[in-house]
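Write out this protein's structure.
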Amino acid sequence: MSPDPRVLVLDELRKQTALLERILAALSPSAAANDRVCDGPHGDPIIKAKSPRDWNGDDMTGRKFSECPPEYLDMVADRFQYFADDASKQDKRTFNLRDAARARGWAARIRAGYVAPQPQASEGEPRW
């Protein structure tokens, strides 16, 4: 006896719903940037704005995302998200969403144990 076709349809709908939820989670603005984005040419931007008002630590202006504590990056991501959601600033929405994702990505990387590479000390004249 073959299974009820209604059950087969419901199973297929559940699979499709799960797939759509995974896609939506990956595309959501609160998602963190992946390693490929963070390692890219624009993946480690410099902090140009002043620190969030709730930040009590050192001033991070002029530092790269990779040099900041994850708690600070969380606050920066929330600020970028706030400005992205602001209806009067729709022309900058895409950029704010990208920067929010980068800040979340760097916060996750640093929490996972990422350590910024130390610059190599040059020994006198460059080798040509």
